[in-house]
Specification:
2 copies of one chain form a homodimer. By secondary structure, chain A is an alpha/beta fold. Chain A has helices at residues 10-22, 44-48, 63-68, 137-150, 162-173, 193-205, 255-260, 305-319, 349-354, 405-417, 422-426, 442-453; strands spanning 2-6, 27-31, 72-74, 78-83, 88-92, 98-102, 105-108, 112-114, 131-132, 154-158, 177-181, 209-211, 214-222, 225-232, 235-241, 243-246, 250-252, 283-285, 292-294, 298-300, 333-337, 340-346, 359-367, 378-386, 392-400. A 5-stranded parallel beta sheet of chain A has the order 3-2-1-7-18. In chain A, helix 1 runs parallel beside helix 8 (305-319).
């Protein structure tokens, strides 16, 4: 049995690890387009803040660790074509020559590519112009080289999602002037603006020039640097800077599977079922290139590293003949932004409505632990539930780093997974000690506030 | 409608608050034996560490706050007899005179009393002798006065449960020599000894002289201080000290209800159903005086403040004619001991066996967040599951303060509440960002380790 995984990131490596774990006799090969298998792409911003060094520590496992599990790595090897009927993968080898790899089962984890979001100039300009994306170790080295060689004093970050916010922190840590341009009305658009506003304030408090409502149209190079133009609240704007980082989302990298005959679905991602079957015989796919089965929204596209790991694990098991199913995403996410942490799980109102619910939301603030014990800080928690059934639909949390936001959102995630009602959540037996909580934890203060806001149900 | 609650601690106050919240027209009176309603007894150790000051801040709510909700407080008023048929409560007023209060519904929250665990001398000696318990604000003031007046240099703490461990930290913070005597083989006997041993090491690291396997038999006063004698691993021992703190557990305070005709059950606690009915007409009870409905163990006795709050809330709602039910305890607990935090939820193997399960347990260690981000520390997690069904039965966690142990145990608690399998837990969509977690959170590393330890199930 020869299993071939394409992709050295979360999905491909998880699949390969799972296959080797379940069947130590399986022959497993991973085809990796660069030299950096199993690197933590989520950790790259912390390389630029200076928290992580050297860059090699970003590897979840080294190549030697991976090979010690019994898998083979084909580094700097680019998959060019899948010959489905012949169960053969054509690749371009490091020396530029073409060769092929026969497989019994193929798992495609080619992930996503940075989007240019229709901004003119982004596709033409590159690191040598001071225009960067941040999606691979190659991008990382290119940005580092540019920072070291040119010592840019200012940067414009286009986008204020997770990576954009983390990189604002990194550039500020390096002493740069940072402008963050966000198309929508508030930063971190995965949260309701009420909570995103808390993150906005934190950015401003640390010196980031945040410009929301700004639609970038062009990036151009000029003798003095880079010029970004666009529309800000209906008026044209133009800003000049030393460096541009565009982090405006990703698009699924489907080229290989599309040419092999796979079907595209939500957001142009490859359609897979919950077993990670592509529909092509002996071809599985997982990660940022495929659609996401969401427990509340159904089939959508929500690329997240955690999901890629889980889908990859399912694909690896099923390629061996297993019957694993991806349990489904809840869209659980967390990000640290300077001294705050923001998290969410489940759905917000507009998503809930689209999924057929009748959502209602309330926002409450409660201390992370008893106020009499030093260091208590408020956590803002927004709870969304179905007004008809009282079912928990989602939660969003913002609070200080150190207030256990990341795991508090996880208690909501476990409740969502189990389709709990908000009332049942309020009665959960959660832990308490004065330095770390309250007899009714902050999360239950929030769900009780939701319940009080609702008309009494029979 | 006149609702009378007896008891100024968690159960009585929660009941009164809930009744006032649901029916602002209800006449609610709380009879409180001392002057300190709604004080956080769990916070007392932090008064002695110096973290909390002044003592008044230990109040969850002040008397004025409570009265502002519309309830009446009868402080320094001791309930002496319930006349069930006449719906009348006899009390001793602050001036020593007897009077009575008519009620429509009565909620008894008289809690528990410190146990002397059969140790001779404990019942006879008191604060004036340098022998203390720590169960009320009165005990707190007595201990404080003794510490201030005598400036004792040494203390023996009998017991190494939650309060005992917290008070070891407090006495060490005050510069005292501390000996901690524990009857069982390891401190914190609510955890398996493997994890309790980590707490033991932490106590020793901070200078506590920990003596496990020591059964205390007598405490006597002598001209030079206090002498504690007993058996240590089969040999007699004797230790002399300036101060003794006995924290060897509690016994339900059932006198009032027992005389009124209530039935006693597990551990001598008053039998109630999940509605908090005592079986006596118009008499409800909640908190440390009643049996505990446990979702895995059935009816047991497990006095915890969190449970008292929840049971009290149920009693307050039902006294008004509601139909709330206590959702059941999972025994979720957490304690900070110096720089460590220990937590548990669900059952351990011996409890699981008693409840009819076939438990298996594994212990794993995983970093609280990605190792490349500064400050990562290992968390030790012991998972217990049913070997036959794969159902999650319990989890125990020990790790550094700051590693989000308290909320990680809560994710296990939510899973237990929903009777999840360990495999399903491993697939939960939990949050991840490098400073606060891993793509597979430490809790999932632990459940995956459990799964790997098991024979493959069909």
């Amino acid at each position: 049995m020869h299993i071939v995984a394409i992709g050295g990131s979360d999905a491909g490596i998880s699949a390969a690890l799972r296959a080797r774990e379940l069947d130590p006799s399986a022959d497993v090969t991973v085809v990796v387009a660069d030299r950096y298998p199993n690197f933590s792409i989520c950790g790259i911003p912390y390389y630029f803040t200076g928290d992580v060094h050297p860059w090699q520590t970003l590897a979840h496992r080294t190549s030697a660790d991976l090979e010690a599990t019994g898998m083979s790595l084909r580094l700097d090897t680019f998959a060019t074509r899948i010959e489905v009927a012949g169960r053969r993968l054509e690749v371009r080898d490091p020396d530029g020559s073409e060769s092929s790899i026969d497989y019994d089962e193929l798992i495609v984890g080619t992930g996503a590519l940075p989007s240019s979001a229709g901004i003119a100039g982004l596709d033409e300009l590159g690191p040598e112009d001071g225009v960067h994306v941040l999606h691979s170790m190659g991008d990382t080295f290119a940005l580092e080289r540019d920072l070291d060689e040119r010592q840019p004093k200012s940067a414009i970050i286009i986008g204020a999602g997770y990576v954009g916010l983390e990189m604002a922190e990194a550039f500020i840590a390096r002493g740069m002037d940072v402008t963050q341009l966000q198309r929508g009305p508030e930063v971190l658009s995965t949260l309701d603006p009420e909570l995103g506003g808390l993150i906005h304030d934190e950015l401003v408090r640390h010196g980031v020039d945040v410009v929301t409502g700004s639609r970038v149209e062009t990036v151009t190079r000029n003798p003095n640097g880079l010029t970004v133009t666009g529309i800000h609240h209906g008026e044209p704007f133009e800003r000049t800077t030393d460096l541009v980082l565009a982090v405006v989302g990703v698009k699924p990298n489907t080229d290989l599977l599309e040419r092999a005959g796979a079907t595209l679905g939500a957001a142009g991602a490859v359609v897979v079922d919950e077993s990670m079957r592509t529909g092509l015989p002996n071809v599985w796919s997982a990660g940022d290139g495929v659609v996401t089965h969401h427990r509340l929204l159904g089939v959508t596209y929500l690329p997240l590293g955690t999901t890629s790991h889980k889908q990859g694990r399912v694909a690896g098991e099923n390629a061996l003949g297993g019957s694993a199913r991806f349990a489904g995403s809840l869209g659980t996410q967390v990000v640290k932004v300077f001294d705050l942490v923001a998290a969410r799980t489940g759905v917000r109102e507009h998503e809930a409505i689209a999924a057929g619910f009748t959502p209602a939301s309330t926002t409450a603030a409660a201390d992370d632990h008893k106020a009499y014990y030093p260091g208590a800080k408020p956590i803002t928690i927004r709870v969304t539930g179905d007004a008809g059934t009282g079912r928990l639909l989602g939660a969003q949390l913002v609070g200080a780093y150190g207030t256990e936001i990341a795991k508090r959102v996880d208690t909501f995630a476990v409740a969502l997974h189990n389709e709990m009602t908000i009332d049942a959540f309020s009665e959960l037996d959660l832990s308490y000690t004065p330095p770390l909580g309250s007899p009714w934890d902050a999360v239950q203060v929030a769900t009780q506030a939701w319940a009080r806001s609702q008309p009494v149900r029979a």
